[in-house]
Design goal:
Elements (H helix, E strand, L loop, with lengths): L2 E4 L5 E7 L2 H16 L9 E9 L2 H19 L1 E12 L4 E11 L2 H4 L7 E2 L5 E5 L2 E9 L1
Antiparallel strand pairs: 1-2, 2-8, 3-5, 4-5, 6-8, 7-8
Length: 140
């Protein structure tokens, strides 16, 4: 399933679309990194394990994207693919998975905008017919 970049005044919105909740989160992450670099140029040379928890699916999306951005800042990595497993229910959600990428190479990855953070503005995770939507606004 695809991802979309949403228009927003000073920031950018991302929307992940998938046939499963996990696919929608994966596509939201791909959309986030597509704003920062030339995504097809990012090779899956390194695997980073991820675990985040939140009280809601919306909080889980923000925590997931926030963790990816922290890894980018701390480890200097950019990612192009993601595998996630989401478990939970009404009061607690947990995401465990991996991000695949490599150290940022400005010559090859062609950096674009800097994404500072995932925000709760416009955050929404919902089922729409036979697909899932996971979206939020990113602070640029």
């Amino acid at each position: 399933m695809p991802y979309e970049i949403l228009e927003h005044t000073a920031d950018a919105g991302v929307r992940g679309i998938g046939s499963t909740l996990e696919e929608a989160f994966r596509e939201a992450a791909r959309a986030t990194f597509s704003l920062m670099v030339d995504l097809p140029q990012v090779k899956p040379k390194q695997t980073v394990k991820l675990e985040v928890e939140a009280d809601t699916l919306e909080g889980l999306l923000v925590a997931f994207l926030g963790e990816l951005l922290a890894r980018r800042d701390i480890e200097g990595l950019v990612f192009s693919d993601f595998r996630v497993r989401i478990e939970g229910g009404e009061r607690r959600w947990r995401l465990a998975g991996e991000a695949y990428g490599e150290p940022l190479d400005p010559a090859r990855h062609r950096p674009r905008v800097e994404v500072k953070a995932a925000t709760y503005f416009g955050v929404e995770v919902r089922r729409e017919g036979d697909r899932w939507i996971a979206q939020c606004v990113l602070d640029l």
